[in-house]
């Protein structure tokens, strides 16, 4: 998912990062986030994926090139003829960025509904304790 792509899709029926990216993209990115020290090659990721299932090296290579084109991976060096990749953001930063983007869209297009959702789904207490121990009224 390119954050600035008007044609990007949000898949409500999928779990986790699959809401924003394809299945193979997610598998690759999870491995990149886990294995990059600080970089990985297509071969590194391919070797991990092929232990789970049959997959072509060129499929992994093409997907990683596309992730770089989307700004999710960055090509930072070469090891011989192979590109070395690093994630543009940590997993946590990526999720935060995506959530902010999605929430921004919802708040812009449905502000009343979003505010009602937050109001109805935010736990409230009559008196909360502040860090000093004093009671604070909402």
In short:
This protein is α+β, with helices and mostly antiparallel strands. The chain is built from five helices and five strands, in the order αβααββααββ. The strands form two sheets. A three-stranded antiparallel beta sheet has the order 1-3-2. A two-stranded antiparallel sheet has the order 4-5.
Uncertain regions: pLDDT < 50 for 5+ in a row?
A: none
> The CATH topology of the domain at 18-87 is what?
Arc Repressor Mutant, subunit A
CATH architect. name of the domain at 18-87: Orthogonal Bundle
CATH superfamily of the domain at 18-87: Winged helix-like DNA-binding domain superfamily/Winged helix DNA-binding domain
Proportion of beta-strand residues: 15-25%
Summarize the biggest pleated sheet: 3 strands, antiparallel
What would you report as the Rg, rounded to the nearest angstrom?
20 Å
Number of helices: 5
Q: Mean pLDDT, rounded to whole units?
A: 88
Structural class: alpha+beta
Highest CATH level, the class of the domain at 18-87: Mainly Alpha
| Large-scale geometry | elongated
Helix content: 40-55%
Q: Spell out the helices and strands N to C.
A: HEHHEEHHEE
Give the N-to-C terminal Cα separation: 39 Å
What is the number of beta strands? 5
Strand order, sheet with most strands: 1-3-2
Structure description:
With 138 residues, the chain is an alpha+beta fold. The strands form two sheets. A three-stranded antiparallel sheet has the order 1-3-2. The longest helix is centred in the C-terminal third of the chain and has 19 residues, at 91-109. The protein has a domain at 18-87: Arc Repressor Mutant, subunit A. The model has no long low-confidence stretch (mean pLDDT 88). The chain contains five helices and five strands.
